[in-house]
Amino acid sequence: MHLAQLKLRDFRNYARLDVSFTPGFQVFLGDNAQGKTNILEAIYLMATLRSFRGVGGAQMIRHGQKGYFVGGTVVGQGERDIKIYWSAAERKLSLDQQPVRRLTDYLGALRVVVFCTEDLQLVKGPGRGRRRFIDLLLSQTHPGYLTLLQRYAGALRSRNALLKQRMPDEAALDSFSIELVKAGEEIIRLRHELAPKLSPLARLAYRRVSHDAEELRLTYAPTVKADFAVELAQSRARERTFRSTLIGPHRDDLDFRLNDRPAGQYGSEGQKRTLAIALKMAQAEYLTGIHGSPPILLIDDVMGELDAKRRAGFMPLLNRSEQAHGQVFMTCTEETWPRELVRDGQRWDVKSGILAKAG
Ligand SMILES: Nc1ncnc2c1ncn2[C@@H]1O[C@H](COP(=O)(O)OP(=O)(O)O)[C@@H](O)[C@H]1O
Ligand SMILES: [Mg+2]
């Protein structure tokens, strides 16, 4: 799979960009604040409909404009044409010139894995980031997963709204509980299945990048131990105190251990960074295994921060991507450009929202 064309209008600092890409390495070079990351953000947006910077649509509109447009052509088994328009008043999403009615039909048209400095939050930050990581991976591999999440979120919202009231209507609460448990059990089941498949991939990736002896273990840490319906009922007394739903997939977490110690607490800064990268490598490997072709890799600044030895651990992933006619987008400054990794490939100079082919 590769992105053959990208078209931006009033997206971040790009007034207008029309560019074609070949498979293989695409390296964006330029000083800081020129628009390198913005391009990766646009590609990620087409794949997931959100920004990896964790911001909403409004921030991506070029200052002083009403809306942005991001479009592209993805070449995989066939050709897919993606168009996104976003403004405060209007949002349009089309796939192959047809408006998208169900997101499950859309996601999967473009598969990406991003490596960025924010990944460190997967290890250091709150559980939300880890849930997002696992949810993205499941929605990239299970067509119905997003619908489940939406159903769960809807039931959770309604249930929490009821719990805020002084005298919640018990019958209404029960009906939302049933819906919550139905969608929730399915989410829990899929998360349970994923973790043991992801863990060995993450362990191998960690070993490759770190050259260390520590063993990484990833496990799913659900808040529901056995029976969601029973445990939810048991938590009613505490729910009365806290006035919100206390157990369920929205409170789940992933647990990372290095030699059996919680990595978030005991890991060194370097180990945490390596772990974050290993998780993303595992995501890429997992997607490649499921779909039979590698996802597009978006690598923002990360390479420049690693020493040559750690970078070398990346090589198998990058090589495989190239061999399979995949695509790697990488940003760096002239000083941080890992020349030993990227011998061939297209270089682009990025300056003030203008992209130019370089040598
Ligand atoms: N909504 C926006 N409208 C116009 N310019 C923006 C917007 N958001 C960010 N920028 C500009 O984009 C540039 C940063 O782009 P970025 O891709 O993060 O740079 P880098 O090349 O360092 O990766 C800055 O000059 C910033 O002012
Ligand atoms: Mg940047």
Would you mind describing this structure in some detail?
43% of the residues lie in helices and 25% in strands. It is of the alpha/beta class and 359 residues long. A hairpin with a 3-residue loop joins strand 4 (67-75) and strand 5 (79-87). Bound molecules: adenosine-5'-diphosphate (ADP) and magnesium ion. Adenosine-5'-diphosphate (ADP) is lined by residues 12-13, 30, 32-38, 59-63, 331, 350.
Short description:
The chain has 13 helices and 15 strands.
- Which parts are unreliable, with pLDDT below 50 for 5 consecutive residues or more? none
Q: Could you tell me the radius of gyration in angstroms?
A: 22 Å
User: What sequence of helices (H) and strands (E) makes up the elements?
Assistant: EEEHEEEEHEHHHHEHHEEHHEHHHEEE
- Average pLDDT rating: 94
Which percent band covers the strand fraction?
15-25%
Biggest sheet strand line-up: 2-1-4-5-6-7
Distinct ligands, ions and cofactors found in the model: adenosine-5'-diphosphate, magnesium ion
* E-strand count: 15
In terms of topology, how is this protein built?
Layout: E1 2-11, E2 14-20, E3 24-29, H1 36-48, E4 67-75, E5 79-87, E6 91-95, E7 98-99, H2 103-106, E8 112-115, H3 121-124, H4 127-141, H5 145-164, H6 170-210, E9 216-221, H7 228-234, H8 236-242, E10 253-258, E11 261-262, H9 263-266, H10 269-291, E12 296-300, H11 302-305, H12 308-312, H13 315-323, E13 327-332, E14 346-351, E15 354-358
Parallel strand pairs: 3-13, 3-14, 8-12, 12-13
Antiparallel strand pairs: 1-2, 1-4, 4-5, 5-6, 6-7, 9-10, 10-11, 14-15
The protein binds adenosine-5'-diphosphate and magnesium ion.
Adenosine-5'-diphosphate (ADP) binds at residues 12-13, 30, 32-38, 59-63, 331, 350.
